[in-house]
Amino acid sequence: MQTESQDVNVKINEKPSYTYPIFIGENLIGNAQAYIEKYTSAKKLLVVTNKTIIDLYPNSLNLKNAEYIILEDGEQYKNFETYKLILEKAQELKLERKDALIAFGGGVIGDITGFCAATYLRGIDFVQIPTTLLAQVDSSVGGKVAINTEFGKNLIGAFYQPKFVLADTSVLKTLDNRQFKTGLSEVIKYAFIEKTAKCDYGFLEFLTKNVESIKQRDNKTLKELIKICCEIKAKVVNEDEKEAGLRAILNFGHTYAHAIEKVTNYTHFTHGEAVAIGMRFAFDLAKKLNTISADYYNEAISLLAKYALTYVLPSGIKKEDLIEAMSFDKKVLDNKVRFILPIGRAAVKITSGTRPEEICN
Questions:
Q1: Which of 191, 212, 259, 325 lies at a C-alpha separation of 20 to 30 Å from 265?
Q2: Coil, helix or strand for 187?
């Protein structure tokens, strides 16, 4: 088994408590079978992937007793129809509870595969092999799995943890620039919430210092970056698996982002691009509400600009449509939209009661 990896352990404190590992390193996916044999008892495997990944890595997993289902690529396919397609394939293969679903792809693949695993036979083993930066630093970790509906993003889902996560940094070399940048939005998110997550990696400084090496995808820098993000997320999930409190901070920038994705029908922006807009919105609102200093506001906006995360909304988007979309957000409580807003350097808090005219002006 490949041994050059950096491990992070996610601990789930719900009873019965357990942990699972995240492996981070180069050229790991060719040893996926060994990891599966060590961490699951599966005899049959159903790999869910998409056309882009299977074209790039047609035989890279080297799995035994595996069948593949190949989906179309895009957030718009994370829906009931695809969910049904995967479950029907699992039934056709007569997968049993000891068998496993393998998510081999980005965030869309991981989310829908995990939801299928959570609900097929009331739960079978699930493995995450994320192939995008966004998935490696965020969506593959922590057990949030879901599908979208016409009312909004990730409204139907579960908390269901994988048996392990295999983050192979080698596959990031094949990401196009747009997909790599979209992952950087989620990376920077961790720098903005780090202190509230009770971590002290100096991640803002790390990202400011290493702009060029990150853009050039230096492998050593990316390994450290992924490890820090996963450790911050693991720390939050360890304390609050099911988002009863602290875990909501991981949605920094996401309330507005999910509304943008919904009103643009998941086709105009990638998830990370929408999150970049959402974080900029959060900083603008925090500045308006005087919860952060001008210096920190300028530092945050400058960091987004250094990574070219400066997207703007199409002119045709209506404020009323965004507000309506946000009313379906999972964090809505007592009919009030709640936001994660900056309150200081690398610190955020959950706020509620913001007036609609403040949200979108």
A1: 191
A2: helix
Whether 338 is catalytic: no
Question: What pTM did the predictor assign?
Answer: 0.92
Q: What is the pLDDT of residue 339?
A: 83
Query: Among 163, 258, 280, 331, which one carries the catalytic annotation?
Result: 258
299 included as an active-site residue? no
**Domain over 5-175 is classified CATH 3.10.310.40:** no
Q: Has 122 been annotated as catalytic?
A: yes
Check if 144 is active-site. yes
Cα gap 220→210, rounded to integer Å? 11
Active site residue 265: no
**37 belongs to the catalytic site:** no
Q: Are 297 and 305 in contact (CB under 8 A)?
A: no
Parse the chain into domains and list their residue ranges.
5-175, 178-360
Residue 258 falls in the annotated catalytic set? yes
Which residue from 56, 60, 31, 45 is spatially nearest to 102, judged by alpha carbons?
A: 45
The phi, psi pair for 147, rounded to 5°, reads -130, 165
Q: Could you give the 3-state DSSP secondary structure of residue 257?
A: helix
Give the residue carrying structure tokens 């602290």. Answer: 246
Return all residues near 209 (Cβ < 8 A) that are at least 6 apart.
none
Pairing of β 18-25 and β 165-168: parallel
Going by pLDDT thresholds of 50, 70 and 90, the confidence category of residue 1 is: very low
Catalytic residue among 31, 78, 181, 186: 186
Cβ within 8 Å of residue 251, ≥6 positions away = 331, 340
Question: Class of the 178-360 domain?
Answer: mainly alpha
d(CA 114, CA 132): 16
Q: Assign 215 to helix, strand or coil.
A: helix
What confidence score (pLDDT) does residue 173 get?
Answer: 92
Burial of 139 (0-12, 13-18, 19+ CB in 10 A): buried
